[in-house]
Amino acid sequence: MLKVLLCGSRGKMGAAVKAAVENREEICIAAEVDVRVQDGEKNAFSSFDKVNGEYDAIIDFSHPSVTDSMLKYAVATKTPVVLCTTGLSDEQIANAKSAAKEIPLFFSANMSLGVNLMVSLCKKAAEILGDDFDIEIIEKHHNQKIDAPSGTALMLANAINDGGEYDYIYDRQSVRKKREKREIGIHSVRGGNIVGEHEVIFAGHDEVVSLKHSATSKEVFAVGAVNAAAFLKGKQAGLYDMQDMLK
Fold it and tell me: Active site includes 3?
């Protein structure tokens, strides 16, 4: 059985991951890490410097403030990581990529199968539609989400902007001028309990192509993370993502 160390276990996504493994015989949550853990709780630790035992994988749905210590622990113990935390700094992303030289590390801004299909479709659409279509991305999330734009919105933009030809524009009201051709507008909406909606608009002359994904529960992300942990079993050190798992 695959023994998972769940980081961020007391949050909403931690609860969703626990639910996702309840009926799976080949994987279990063997221990937890969360700042809300109280001293003396069995198989639960408030920080990575207190963790003991051996685990087959770490699933991390926590906070960027925990990422550095998590990666340090994972590299020291050679434990594979499924890194799902969003809002990471450029330096933390670089550190994750560096860690992947020593351990198997699965890193995706969104663990949904549908979203990752959308990434591929957006990349293909941009290649076909070319310079004749303006590109805008709209993302919507619940009113408790801290980071904006979402990691998924940036993942979609980066897939389209693989060659680095576009500039990202986050705030049009700051400059009064016409839209530039080589830019991607990224817009964030926060309200209610929206789980996650992403729409990419390709606006051309007399026609608009729109690709959209809506998540109705956090379960889709939790299931994806659990599947990713199982995918890493036996893998060599390296950086993996959903596209690798879908091959």
Answer: no
Instruction: Establish whether 145 is a catalytic residue.
Output: yes
- Secondary structure, 3-state, 102-156: CCEEEECCCCCHHHHHHHHHHHHHHHHHHHHCEEEEEEEECCCCCCCCCHHHHHH
Q: Are 190 and 146 in contact (CB under 8 A)?
A: no
161 CB contacts (<8 Å, ≥6 apart)?
Answer: 168, 184
Using a cut of 0.90, tell me whether the model's pTM lies above it: no
Query: ∠35-37-42 over CA atoms, to 5°?
Result: 140
Q: Are 26 and 81 in contact (CB under 8 A)?
A: no
Phi, psi of 224, rounded to the nearest 5 degrees: -60, -40
Tell whether omega for the bond before 149 is within 30 degrees of 0, i.e. cis.
Answer: yes
> Of 3, 18, 123, 145, which residue is the catalytic one?
145
Q: Which residues contact 236 (CB under 8 A, 6 or more apart)?
A: 104
Structure tokens at 156: 């979609």
DSSP state of 173: G
State the catalytic residue, choosing from 141, 198, 213, 218.
141
Res. 173: pLDDT tops 90: no
**Model pLDDT for residues 52-63, shown as the tens digit of each residue:** 999 999 999 999
pLDDT category at 232 given cuts 50, 70, 90 is very high
Query: Residue 188: phi, psi to the nearest 5?
Result: -115, 135
Is 247 a residue whose pLDDT tops 80? no
